[in-house]
Amino acid sequence: MGDGKKQITRNALRITLFVFLLLMSGCGYSIHPQSALPAKEVEIGLIENMTVEPKLQDKLQRALTEEFMKQGIRVGRGAEYRITGAVNSFDLVSLSEKGGITVEYRVMVSAEFRLLNREGRVIEVKNISAPFIVSLTDPGDLGNLLALKDTAEERAMADIAMEIVGALIFK
pTM, whole model, 2 decimals? Predict the structure, then answer.
């Protein structure tokens, strides 16, 4: 390839990259270096389940760990910041019926979180609730409904984790 073609290719690549970055910054997205993150490591403390639904605290703790790691923040003991929380409500609401059997449900969850520094001082409090509505549909099989319910719980916990991690990172 000649020098002229290499230069044209480099210029086209630069223009494409510039346009891509321009479009991304105009849509509400932004690129942040890891050094701009408020913390490089966080500890996930006690997550309480104030509902009668079993294992929500485990699902939320797992979802928080995955979301922090996706955002480039390590999760470990003794970190500068610790996050604690509570799942305050969990409701499975019937939305529609077919032949006397509920076929569509809505999962609604609300939770609150505290970000603490090393000394245990509260830095920030976040309350997360609706619009964490996850619909699931059941054709009438109870076993299938229970499996779908578990999946819906995990999706709701993942949505809450995404919201809380985003709120802490992008103040």
Answer: 0.72
